[in-house]
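User: Some background: our group keeps a shared notebook of sequences we're curious about, and every so often someone picks one and asks for a predicted structure to add to the entry. Today it's my turn. The entry only has the sequence so far, pasted here. Could you supply the structure so I can complete it?
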Amino acid sequence: MLDLALIRSEPARVEAALARRGMSTEAVAAVLALDAEWAARRDICESLRLRRRRASEEVASLRAAGADSSDIEDLGRSVSGQLARVETEVADLDRRRREALLAIPNLPATDVPDAEPAAAETPPHWPKPFPLLAHWDLVEMLRLAAPAVAPGPGRGFLVWRSRGARLVRALVDFMLDLHTGEHGCEEVRAPLVATRAALTGSAHLPLLEGRLYRVAEPAAPGPRDRDLFLVPRAEPHLASLYAGRTLEATEVPIRLVAAGPAFRREASAGGQAGRGLLRLHEFDTVELYTFTRPESDAEELQRAVAAAEAVLARLEIPHRRRLRPAPRLSHAAAKTVDLEVWAPGVGEWLMVAAISSFTDYQARRTETRLRDERGRARLVHTVGGAAVALPRLIAAILENGQEADGSVRLPAALAPYMGGAASLVVSARPGGECR
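Assistant: Of course. Here's the predicted structure to add to the notebook entry:
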């Protein structure tokens, strides 16, 4: 979340930055109003504590002198009752102020554009002399996956089969090997469920609660932090890995890579947008996440983007890099670089990676700090994102690699992970074959 001291000292700057996101100034005004009320009630608390202490001292003095102290004792009890009520009010105002702060997104970086750039690029030329198929036709012809049907969860979920399942595994292993072997990342395997606290730390909550799958638990009294959700990605676990800790300067940068399923409720879409692999509720992704010094933030962002681009280059997929405009930034991001692949069968650029600088926004929520060489503790900066999410990547591999006979030529980089297979071919028997 944002620094409250920044909002207090430079409200106009914060409002101007949020306006670039298309956000009104009401959120800032709400925080400042709650903050002013909290400060006023806190001052009353201090005054009441002082009166209670003085009454206590006077009672002790009167008793030592053998005098009647009952009136002062009654006054002390009255003050204690007032103090308890005001302390409750202060705690409630502090909670409401934090909730208001959590609702305010990160400020966009100064070099983030305010609008999408004009589309001036010419799509890559399709060089093969036969009509294109969309990936959903290729998935069906090659028997790579099938929709999950009753009694399963239904549309938006897939059952990958045989060569399709192996392709998913091959891509994950290829990316993990690339990121750990060439980019110096530590591999992490995170749980499939995350707590409310972890999701709040990564800024998925409270904003995106309606898009998350909540894990039903028996009704029982207890803190809401016991709430569990299926992970929208590994990021909540990665962001909270050092929650409440102070890292030493020698420990950073900490570069992590995690693979696993991601779950999210996608808005239903008709037509092409809802077909095939373009809008799934559960899919595999490989993510990068880095803890770094504030002054190395930009460098680590570019490093992570280059690592994601290396995946696409090795897989021989036409791709492009785009800087996301301020109105489309995620709640926690100050800057996001999107990587898009060309899917000739769909005829669209598909986003497969989004690498973001979160500055100190997540670290302030998780209370993750860094002690510099002078011994000063300050908030660490974080960088992270998909590198790369699989469904649209697979769509691009299938559509770019398709041949006239319905087979799909696989990128050479995948051959070692596919048992040496160079292509996916149509087969009459269930499950098909690789060759």
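Suggested note for the entry: The CA atoms of residues 338 and 354 lie 4 Å apart. The domain at 4-102 is CATH 1.10.287.40 (Helix Hairpins).
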